[in-house]
Amino acid sequence: MFSRLTAIAAPTLLVYKRNRWRAFFLVILPSRLHKMAEASRKSPEFRLYLKLKPEQWPIVYHPTYNIGFLGLEKLHPFDSKKWGNVFRHLQASEMLKSDSDTIEPLEASDEELLSVHTERYLGSLRWSINVAKVTEVPLVALIPNFLVQRRVLKPLRLQTGGTILAAKLALERGWAINIGGGFHHCHSDQGGGFCAYADITLAIKFAFNKCDGVERAMIIDLDAHQGNGHERDFMGNSNVYILDVYNSGIYPMDIHAKKAITRKVELRHGTKDDEYLQKVEHHVEEALNEFNPHFIVFNAGTDILEGDPLGNLSITASGIIKRDEIVFQAACDHNIPIIMVTSGGYQQCTAQVIANSILNLNKKGLIPRSQPGITEVRLPIVTSDK
Ligand SMILES: [Zn+2]
User: Fold this and answer.
1) Which of 176, 182, 207, 370 has its CA 20 to 30 A from that of 138?
2) pTM greater than the 0.70 cutoff
């Protein structure tokens, strides 16, 4: 080591003595450029990758997440204001003291969506009848498309930008929560089940492309439904491990997409806490023993909650809180950054359950306000001095 340093330093000093400007171009400028390149490697330049202030929580939310449309939203089984209600419950708890404690994402643009979606599919959303099929609200077909774009699709594009941003924040802080997102039925060429954009696929693909050293991801999909969207998108991709725990007797029953599931756990109607939590804990641990991802996307759907008209499972509110704790504890034990997205589950009480779960994660020390440095620990450190 000493001889190498001497070999570099001695000629540098000589050059500097003879000609300061020559030294600047030969030594100082390349060094500065190297540092700038290092900085950009750690914080990749990308429009959707906003910077989090040190005092902010890596919690992503925008008031425009919430869908309101001339009262039509009341015709849907979903509480379309769920995301805002989660945010308000967190504020009421004093975990969030002001709106600026969290970060607002940007709306994913067509150009960004096209990195996963086909032009054909995005073009199809310019027809209200197709949006009606995706959102499962038939009356949307009768509304002029410019209004559908503004009141329905824009909130979903914002939530998609939120999941993409959350991936970057998790890699910096160790964890991030998008209060929206989790559109796991949408794939590159088709939406469905209220999922218009493939936010999970987009977040993973952008992290792989933009964040140096990030090349393996795990999706832990614990929504009541099978995550056939990301499964179709990552079919045959050995860099993405998919653990999916779902009720096999409900939508979408996508047999082709099941081939992409690395670890499949099918549940029966009415599954209760004890069986569910035992299965989640066992399979999350086994998955992390089998595969070593650079980050986890946790699709934390709450339609597993008892009484959900779509999920048809019987998990209690405290069971959901315990489930989320198991997943975050496993990520923490394995030192793997984790993103949580809220996905399905739209009963009137659901927002309170999600907020209570986030508060519990905070109380257990699993989502500290500031956790710098995990990226440097977790990701490969490239050095020139071998
Ligand atoms: Zn679901």
Assistant:
1) 182
2) yes
